[in-house]
């Protein structure tokens, strides 16, 4: 699951409500503009904000089901410090946790580890080399078994 704070969601609703998320051109003072492109031009560059990020990202996957006749829960997750990511790369943790997995996928493809004839989703490949690389590339993951994660 993915969650966002109420303040973030409120900002998104306001942007939608005032029409700034529109992707179709509108006329403004005789000039055609696309609201979302204008918004991008006036907002700060996300790359410039990393220095001020604090805290951690928390990305995980919870799998719940029946195994051997008993309900089981498995949770695999990673926490990434914004401050540590910025110190290493000059970018905050969201960028780090987006870029590193993409790099690993490209690496596994180029090495032939994730290469088969036809069209494949990454989820269809053996996950073990990917998970091993996450640990080696600065995104260590952790496991929890049969824990209640409900809020």
Automatic annotation (TrEMBL):
It holds the Pfam family Sacchrp_dh_C. Coiled coil: none annotated. Residues 3-139 form the Saccharopine dehydrogenase-like C-terminal domain. This is Saccharopine dehydrogenase family protein. It comes from Parabacteroides distasonis.
